[in-house]
Amino acid sequence: MFNHRLIPALCTALLASALHLNAFAADAVEVKSVAEQEVEVVENGKKVIKRVPVDKAVPGSEILYTTTFKNQIDKPVGNIAITNPVPNDMVYKGGSARGANTEITFSVDGGKQYATADKLTVKTPEGKTRPALASDYTHIRWTYKGELGVGKSGEVSFRAVIK
Amino acid sequence: MNRLPALLLAFFVTWTATAQGAGTPAGIVITNTVLLQCDLCGPGGTTSNTPSFVVDNKVNVTVAESDGDATPVIAGQASAVTRFTVTNNGNAAQDYALAVANVASGASLFSGIDNFDASACFARVESGAVSGFDPTDTTSFIDELAPDASRTVYVACSIPAGLSASDQAIVSLSATTLAGTAPGVQGAVVMQDSANDPATVQVVFADIAGSEEAARDGRHSARDAYRVGALLSLSKSVINVQDPFGCSAASGCRIVPGSMLTYRIDVVASGSSTLDGLVLSDPLPANMSYVAGSIVVDGVARTDAADADLADFGISQPNTVTVSPGSVSAPLSTWFSFRALIN
After folding, report:
1. What is the model's pTM?
2. Contacts of A79 (CB under 8 A, 6+ apart)
3. Which residues of A touch B8 (CB under 8 A)?
4. Residue A152: which CATH number?
């Protein structure tokens, strides 16, 4: 005797688990990156700094990179770490990394290890050790403290100069 | 659950940075990608979009005077040449147009004041074949100058007649940035782009103000000066040969070991100013011996000792005839002679 009520229940169970898999595969956190420059404009007779998409990009130009991230699921998300390699042909501008509620660390070895700026060192060609300079950094990392609530977003940024 | 690796306190790496003076070449694309990891993110995390833009053409040129002082000339000099260096401080290869101009009367340079104009001035680029300004330098514009590279440019002018000592002409050399195009082809003047396109290489002027024009105009310039002074020319000849075996009708007076030669050095100073501290010297070659007491200056015999007659042998400088007229006023001509034996 085949219980035809069981079949729909089985189908629903299978469908539910399939949906659960899809939810895990979709991005829990959406992440967007923007490259901008600051220009001085005159508004109502006053000089104002405005952010515009990258305009003139020549050696020496300073670019402001902003990353926004948003929780897209129905649960708080934790252990968030945002890693940004210093872009090619650019130098990180020391002290420019920002991020509310984050701990900021840097790498000088291609992203293998990270430490706060004050603890980073490099070896000179002569074999001596010296404190790392902003120009030695290869990566920037923001470690978000705690959890990002449902529907909440955050923003981190840094500046780099074209070599 | 993604656990991040434990942070280390300190670590070591060798870092070699290659600095490029002019900077990143125009046309390089700069991209940025961000990785976000979290406990509920998939393995490998989430990657952001990739904002990108292209590095624009920074146009920057400098012209500099080369010799650090005014170029001495004489009135009526057919060709007076002075040197400049033109450097490409931008991040792409460029051509440069060159222009020479006379600076207005009253301007000062190298402690002198401009009071005449040089005439028929033109600029030529050093070809690299022969050092100095010479007939191989035929090009009048700079062709394909690479970032951080320099070229020597000669400015040649004629100096008018009827000038006095210390009269000065100041000239300027201006370089205008042209497109790089192809070798041998003079490019068009570059213009700064007003519209913005992050995906296209656009022209950005970054030059500083030169002697003749403003900053950020794709041009630069520098000045140099011609100052009227005196020109010294020396010529040496053998005016007599004594053949030890006697001169003959068949072979003349032979120059062989044992021959005694009389050398004469003529000194002509043209122009119209004073030469201070003039010293003339003629070192003897290794295979000759000086004949004692043979120095004659302007027809008057001089002693070999360093005394008031201002000529000596071997005292001021070893194995050398030295004549020290001191201060002379151009124009003038003088001569001295001495005898030497071939060993």
Report:
1. 0.71
2. B1, B2, B3, B4, B37, B38, B39
3. 113, 115
4. 2.60.40.1170
- Which residues lie closer than 8 Å to A138 by C-beta, 6 or more apart? A85, A86, A107, A108, A109, A110, A111
How far A118 CA lies from chain B's nearest CA (Å)?
Answer: 10
Please tell me whether residues B101 and B223 are part of one structural domain.
yes
CB contacts < 8 A (A, B):
170
With contacts defined as CB-CB under 8 Å, which chain A residues touch B53? 35, 54, 57
For residue B331, say if its preceding peptide bond is cis, omega within 30 degrees of 0.
Answer: yes
Instruction: Identify the domain containing residue B42 by its residue range.
Output: 7-55
Q: Considering its fold, how many domains does chain B have in total?
A: 3
Is residue B182 one of the residues assigned to a domain? yes
**Averaged pLDDT in 10-residue chunks for chain B of 343 residues:** 33 36 91 96 93 96 94 89 97 97 96 96 94 91 97 96 89 97 93 86 95 96 92 88 87 90 91 77 93 94 91 92 85 92 94
Q: Which domain holds residue A32?
A: 4-162
Residue A79 to residue B196, Cβ atoms within 8 A: no
A135 contacts on B by Cβ (under 8 Å) = 17
